[in-house]
Amino acid sequence: MRKLFFKNALLPGGWARNVNIEIDAAGMIASVTKDSDAKGRSVDAAIAVSGLPNVHSHAFQRAMAGLAEFDQPGKDDFWSWRTTMYQFVAHLTPDDVLAIAAQLYMEMLEAGYTSVGEFHYLHHQRHGVFYDNPAEIAERIIEASHNTGIGLTLLPVFYAHGDFGGAESHENQQRFINTVDGFARLLEGARSALKTTPGAVLGIAPHSLRAVAPSELRSIIKLRVNGPIHIHIAEQIKEVDDCLGWSGERPVAWLLDHMGVDENWCLIHATHMNGAETDALAKSGAVVGLCPSTEANLGDGVFNGARYHQTGGRWAVGSDSHIRIDAAEELRGYEYSQRLIKHARNVICAEAASTGRTLFDAAVSGGAQALGRKTGALTPGFAADILALDEDHRVLVGKYGDQWLDGWIFSGGKDCIEGVWVRGRKVIEGREHVSRQMIEANFRRCMTDLLAR
Ligand SMILES: [Zn+2]
Predict the structure, then answer these.
(1) pLDDT at 81
(2) Nearest Cα to 396, choosing from 411, 381, 376?
(3) Which residue segments constitute the domains of the chain, with CATH numbers given?
């Protein structure tokens, strides 16, 4: 049994002092004792809080961050960004994906995320030629999670069509495309590759209503064992208009009406909902996966957070395209988007709590639900996924309790985090990943080679 001792820790019942946490061999919290005897104890951290789940990641896109910030002023949008992404993805090898994903997961750990939902859609070779092993690239994602220690919820993506109504896929989508049978083989391969990964979760991800026909959606949901179901939805106004043209319904309304959305679902973006959709989704128990930095970068629009919050809707954050990797920044970006549309302050805020605390609590519990993981609370039975905040950091010094969260989220960022444990194993020490040198050297080699191809 390993023991950690924290001067202060955020427990489910609130802030506590002199907290002793015992961790079992599987990395789960066995006991939590507050007000314990501090005499003679070496302190593992001054301030401990749960690690955040990152519910939406496309790992390879980390390598194209900063490569799509040019085009025709005012005419560039999500769809032209997607064309750039398709051109980029054509060049990637499985070893590139390993080097990029390891760098990404290391950066996530340094930035406050202790688990990730990998929405994995790059399955085949160029022009859709299959690898002998259908889980060839999925195995590189799993290897990257081993090399970095991040908790992995793998979400193999089912992608079949180029648009609503079962339209044929495009040439530049061939590396993503599967039949339902091919997807079943991919899931089987991923399941057996995950057997040696402690705490791994396997879910499914129908890509979007554009890419999956209703009959296929029903078939692949039947292939799910017990992990979550993630889907991109209502990210773009054109997508809403096309869905209306195809079905007469808006995307979120269609999904709620036809697919029995419940707490097993995570709807990524859900940016464009009317009031009725917002209320119905909040009542469904599903989680919305918000990706504020990516949604801003792509010009997607703004989620109706105030109404969703008032109706008790559950949500979490993801870094999606990885234009930035900083958990605090996603939380701040979400709240600021709401302030800008409401002309008000502290919009996503609970009664008698700070905004930082409200955002943090929602994102850790919604994130754990969305990733199907026992994480997000420092309490027995949950994974020992823990962040250590630096009490001497300039934005935290002299503060206490929820002020630490407000300082970290609104005024600081990832440099407030000095240590991180995942399932009780310390992976970030002195703000740096324990394998940073090797992982970053591989990434630098990969990028230099990739951008010269
Ligand atoms: Zn996405």
Answers:
(1) 87
(2) 411
(3) 2-49+378-432 (2.30.40.10), 52-371 (3.20.20.140)
